[in-house]
């Protein structure tokens, strides 16, 4: 059985990427508490950048380069970065791919497609199930349709990407769903200071809010209703009184398992200025030996 490896990084690539990101915030001389604080700050910054990119993806649209319906559909479902990669394949399918031969046996249509260098790729396409396989194996390795399959879909009259070729990880709503590990523990959360129950409620609320916003953005009446609901809910929350929030000191104490002492008895040593004190020892020069003793 063949498994799709699209979007999967090698272990070495993942490790190098993490090191390149965290080395700007941490170093090997940090104490455990300072390392933990900087690690949390780093994750918060990473989440903030992800939110900014999600906002840009949900509320802006890239410019189309063709009049093909399959490109417009990709713009609606894919994130900006994935759409740019898919758009390159669409442009290549329009300008640099030429159909050489077409053979059909039953529901299976075999198409030979050449590029400008004369290299031939063969696409086997099932006209009934809309399943296509190309000898370049781009979809199996990257999770994005290649230009050869796009040519076949265009000739078959498809104006949308078949659902089996739209991987959820590349869609705009991929980050709007909760993720769990093998033990059923929720993987998302904005801060370790939240309790597990609050983490789950926080993630579910963010997911539902983003889904509702995405659903209402195409209709003015829906957006007005959603805006009114959010405004009323925010006003109600502000009038319910103050809420308890865990401070950074309490967060540190919870992490190390003890409270900070009120009286500090151990202090760092005074810095002694020893520059220029004492006498410099001169190096003893050897006397030249007599020629006879050499």
TrEMBL record:
According to the UniProt record, one GO cellular component term is:
nucleus
Read off the InterPro entries from this record.
FHY3/FAR1 (IPR031052), Znf_PMZ (IPR006564), Znf_SWIM (IPR007527)
Question: Which Pfam family name is an example for this entry?
Answer: SWIM
Q: Name one GO biological process term.
A: regulation of DNA-templated transcription
User: Where are the compositionally biased (Basic residues) regions?
Assistant: 277-294
The protein's location, in the record's own words, is: Nucleus
> Does Zinc count among this protein's keywords?
yes
Domain SWIM-type stretches? 125-157
Q: Which UniProt keywords apply?
A: Metal-binding, Nucleus, Zinc, Zinc-finger
The terms under GO molecular function for this entry are: zinc ion binding
Q: Where is this region: Disordered?
A: 269-294
**What does the UniProt record say this protein does?**
Putative transcription activator involved in regulating light control of development.
Q: Which family does the record assign? A: Belongs to the FHY3/FAR1 family.
Protein name as it appears in the record: Protein FAR1-RELATED SEQUENCE
Q: Which organism is it from?
A: Aegilops tauschii subsp. strangulata (Goatgrass)
């Amino acid at each position: 059985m063949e498994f799709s490896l699209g979007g999967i990084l090698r272990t070495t690539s993942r490790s190098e990427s993490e090191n390149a990101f965290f080395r700007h915030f941490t170093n090997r001389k940090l104490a455990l508490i300072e390392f933990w604080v900087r690690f949390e700050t780093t994750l918060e910054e990473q989440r903030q950048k992800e939110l900014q990119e999600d906002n840009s993806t949900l509320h802006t649209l890239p410019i189309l380069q063709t009049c093909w319906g399959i490109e417009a559909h990709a713009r609606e479902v894919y994130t900006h970065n994935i759409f740019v990669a898919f758009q390159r394949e669409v442009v290549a399918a329009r300008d640099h791919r030429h159909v050489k031969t077409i053979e059909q046996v039953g529901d299976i249509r075999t198409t030979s497609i050449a590029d400008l260098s004369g290299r031939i790729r063969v696409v086997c396409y099932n006209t009934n199930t809309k399943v296509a396989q190309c000898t370049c194996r781009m979809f199996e390795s990257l999770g994005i349709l290649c230009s050869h399959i796009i040519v076949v879909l265009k000739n078959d009259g498809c104006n949308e990407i078949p659902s089996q070729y739209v991987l959820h990880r590349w869609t705009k709503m991929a980050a709007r769903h909760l993720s769990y590990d093998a033990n059923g523990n929720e993987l998302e959360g904005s801060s370790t200071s939240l309790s597990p129950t609050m983490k789950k409620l926080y993630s579910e609320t963010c997911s539902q809010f983003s889904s509702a916003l995405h659903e209402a953005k195409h209709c003015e009446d829906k957006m007005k209703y959603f805006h009114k609901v959010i405004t009323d809910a925010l006003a109600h929350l502000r009038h319910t009184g103050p809420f308890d929030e865990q401070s950074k000191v309490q967060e540190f104490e919870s992490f190390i398992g003890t409270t900070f002492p009120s009286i500090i008895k151990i202090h760092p040593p005074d810095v002694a200025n020893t520059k220029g004190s004492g006498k410099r020892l001169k190096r003893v020069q050897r006397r030249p030996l007599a020629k006879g003793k050499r």
